[in-house]
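Long-time lurker. I teach an intro course on protein structure, and each term I like to show students one example going from raw sequence to a predicted 3D structure in C-alpha coordinate notation. This year I'd like something fresh instead of my usual example. Would anyone be willing to generate the C-alpha coordinates for the chain below so I can use it in lecture? Attribution to the forum is fine with me.
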Amino acid sequence: MDPEHPLKPEPGSERPSPAPSLAGAGTVAGMGLQFALSILLFLFAGQWIDGKLGTAPLFLIVFVFLGAGGSFYSIYRKLMQQQRRADEQRRK
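-- Reply from a regular --
Happy to contribute to a lecture. Here you go:
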Protein backbone atom coordinates (compact mmCIF):
# COMPACT_ATOMS: atom_id res chain seq x y z
CA MET A 1 0.00 0.00 0.00
CA ASP A 2 1.32 3.39 -1.01
CA PRO A 3 1.12 5.95 1.85
CA GLU A 4 0.88 8.81 -0.63
CA HIS A 5 -2.20 7.28 -2.31
CA PRO A 6 -4.47 5.79 0.37
CA LEU A 7 -7.30 3.52 -0.67
CA LYS A 8 -10.58 5.32 -1.26
CA PRO A 9 -14.03 3.75 -1.15
CA GLU A 10 -15.88 3.32 -4.40
CA PRO A 11 -18.31 6.12 -5.22
CA GLY A 12 -21.77 5.45 -3.83
CA SER A 13 -20.53 2.98 -1.22
CA GLU A 14 -20.09 5.54 1.55
CA ARG A 15 -22.76 5.74 4.17
CA PRO A 16 -23.29 8.81 6.27
CA SER A 17 -22.77 8.14 9.95
CA PRO A 18 -25.97 8.36 11.95
CA ALA A 19 -26.21 11.49 14.04
CA PRO A 20 -26.68 10.84 17.74
CA SER A 21 -29.99 12.09 19.04
CA LEU A 22 -31.23 12.80 22.50
CA ALA A 23 -34.72 11.79 21.45
CA GLY A 24 -33.50 8.22 20.91
CA ALA A 25 -31.91 8.17 24.36
CA GLY A 26 -35.13 9.40 25.93
CA THR A 27 -37.11 6.71 24.15
CA VAL A 28 -34.79 3.97 25.39
CA ALA A 29 -34.91 5.35 28.95
CA GLY A 30 -38.70 5.45 28.75
CA MET A 31 -38.81 1.83 27.64
CA GLY A 32 -36.65 0.78 30.58
CA LEU A 33 -38.84 2.68 33.00
CA GLN A 34 -41.98 1.16 31.47
CA PHE A 35 -40.47 -2.32 31.83
CA ALA A 36 -39.59 -1.83 35.50
CA LEU A 37 -42.90 -0.21 36.45
CA SER A 38 -44.91 -2.87 34.66
CA ILE A 39 -43.17 -5.66 36.53
CA LEU A 40 -43.60 -3.85 39.85
CA LEU A 41 -47.29 -3.22 39.21
CA PHE A 42 -47.91 -6.87 38.38
CA LEU A 43 -45.79 -7.97 41.35
CA PHE A 44 -47.91 -5.95 43.78
CA ALA A 45 -51.13 -7.14 42.14
CA GLY A 46 -49.96 -10.75 42.51
CA GLN A 47 -49.07 -10.18 46.16
CA TRP A 48 -52.46 -8.63 46.83
CA ILE A 49 -54.34 -11.53 45.20
CA ASP A 50 -52.18 -14.07 47.06
CA GLY A 51 -52.96 -12.27 50.33
CA LYS A 52 -56.71 -12.40 49.64
CA LEU A 53 -56.75 -16.04 48.52
CA GLY A 54 -53.93 -17.43 50.70
CA THR A 55 -52.14 -18.93 47.70
CA ALA A 56 -48.71 -17.31 48.19
CA PRO A 57 -46.56 -17.18 46.01
CA LEU A 58 -48.59 -18.59 43.11
CA PHE A 59 -50.15 -15.40 41.72
CA LEU A 60 -47.06 -13.34 42.52
CA ILE A 61 -44.95 -15.55 40.25
CA VAL A 62 -47.59 -15.76 37.52
CA PHE A 63 -48.19 -12.00 37.50
CA VAL A 64 -44.46 -11.14 37.43
CA PHE A 65 -44.04 -13.32 34.34
CA LEU A 66 -47.15 -11.78 32.76
CA GLY A 67 -45.81 -8.27 33.45
CA ALA A 68 -42.39 -9.10 32.03
CA GLY A 69 -43.85 -10.81 28.97
CA GLY A 70 -46.23 -7.95 28.28
CA SER A 71 -43.42 -5.43 28.65
CA PHE A 72 -41.14 -7.36 26.30
CA TYR A 73 -43.90 -7.50 23.71
CA SER A 74 -44.63 -3.78 24.03
CA ILE A 75 -40.95 -2.88 23.68
CA TYR A 76 -40.62 -5.22 20.68
CA ARG A 77 -43.57 -3.52 18.95
CA LYS A 78 -42.12 -0.05 19.59
CA LEU A 79 -38.71 -1.05 18.27
CA MET A 80 -40.19 -2.61 15.12
CA GLN A 81 -42.25 0.54 14.53
CA GLN A 82 -39.13 2.69 14.87
CA GLN A 83 -37.26 0.39 12.50
CA ARG A 84 -40.02 0.68 9.88
CA ARG A 85 -39.93 4.49 10.14
CA ALA A 86 -36.14 4.52 9.78
CA ASP A 87 -36.34 2.23 6.73
CA GLU A 88 -38.96 4.49 5.13
CA GLN A 89 -36.82 7.57 5.73
CA ARG A 90 -33.79 5.88 4.14
CA ARG A 91 -35.82 5.03 1.05
CA LYS A 92 -36.80 8.66 0.51
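Some talking points for your students: The mean pLDDT is 86. The helical segments are 22-53, 58-91.
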